[in-house]
Amino acid sequence: MAQLFDRIALIGIGLIGSSIARDVKQLGLAREVVVSTRSPETLKRAEELELGTSYKLSAADAVEGADLVIVSVPVGASEAVAKQIAPHLKPGAIVTDVGSTKASVIAQMAPHMPKTVHFIPGHPLAGTEKSGPDAGFAGLFHGRWCIFTPLPGTDADALAKLKAFWEALGSKIDEMDPEHHDKVLAIVSHLPHIIAYNIVGTADDLETVTQSEVIKYSASGFRDFTRLAASDPTMWRDVCLHNKDAILEMLARFSEDLAYLQRAIRWGEGDKLFELFTRTRDVRRSIIEAGQDVDVPDFGRHSLDKKV
Ligand SMILES: NC(=O)C1=CN([C@@H]2O[C@H](COP(=O)(O)OP(=O)(O)OC[C@H]3O[C@@H](n4cnc5c(N)ncnc54)[C@H](O)[C@@H]3O)[C@@H](O)[C@H]2O)C=CC1
Ligand SMILES: O=C(O)C(=O)Cc1ccc(O)cc1
Description:
CATH superfamily of the largest domain: NAD(P)-binding Rossmann-like Domain
Helix content: 40-55%
Protein name: prephenate dehydrogenase
Pathway: Amino-acid biosynthesis; L-tyrosine biosynthesis; (4-hydroxyphenyl)pyruvate from prephenate (NAD(+) route): step 1/1
Distance between the termini: 9 Å
Order of helices and strands: EHEHEHEHEHEEEHEHHHHHHH
Strand order of the largest sheet: 3-2-1-4-5-6
Family: Belongs to the prephenate/arogenate dehydrogenase family.
Number of helices: 13
Keywords: Amino-acid biosynthesis, Aromatic amino acid biosynthesis, NAD, Oxidoreductase, Tyrosine biosynthesis
Catalytic activity: prephenate + NAD(+) = 3-(4-hydroxyphenyl)pyruvate + CO2 + NADH
Bound molecules: 1,4-dihydronicotinamide adenine dinucleotide, 3-(4-hydroxy-phenyl)pyruvic acid
CATH architecture of the largest domain: 3-Layer(aba) Sandwich
């Protein structure tokens, strides 16, 4: 595949940053890939994995001369990173991120971005419960959505170039305004994780069921929750704190609907239960028909290896 950028700087080299690095290397999308993270151990590991062409502890040093800067850090670290890199960005550079929340990332980063760069927030809807540079893999983004939430007046050529980059990684592209993104993601991604953290926490707290019984008898439904509940605590703390309003709005709706379900069970209203369970089964069927049913262990693994 053709080289799209001369120098890419990756700020943060965990699951997402390292998956991007692996794809960029396999596909030859850049001449140079400068990897940066604030922890010396993680940087050393990135070097051992040969994820880039050079390695910097300082994000400021890493972005010097870069045409594309991808910030892949927990959303709560966005402002700190923006402040560090801003004075060192090359005029004309594209700066993007991969954060799971968008309004907060824009509020944290946009005020620090020089007028000479193109700041285009993004979010690949692909990941796993794992974190760190060893957890990434080539092909993670293949067949998955990448949503951009461009600011008004965004340069069309810069946006097209960034879209071409994500398309090269196999992503399907969409655009939304940041507030809408945050509401949609609150229900389809953030609430499922919060519910998983909660149910696993509840099971862990039970006095009448021992922890060994939870482990021994965990049915596949509970196991699915434990996978989500094993997701990175820093990342998900930040998502909760930085998409507070949308998450609280969706949690309020969720609690109301749960009370309805609770009442139907209490009063033996089987028809109500049956109606809901039938409706939700249809949702699952629609997802499968839309080709969105990619199980996590296979996330993208089928893709780039075959192509390259
Ligand atoms: N894990 C997932 O499934 C997905 C995560 N995201 C978003 O991607 C971003 C990164 O997530 P992951 O790669 O999963 O996390 P991760 O925990 O695997 O990696 C985070 C990286 O950021 C670095 N870092 C943390 N604070 C930093 C700072 N202040 N300055 C420089 N580097 C710093 C860490 O050393 C590490 O290299 C987050 O904003 C998350 O919301 C988006 C889609 C999916
Ligand atoms: O592991 C899973 O099931 C996920 O849902 C991964 C994920 C986590 C956060 C995102 O912003 C996008 C995708």
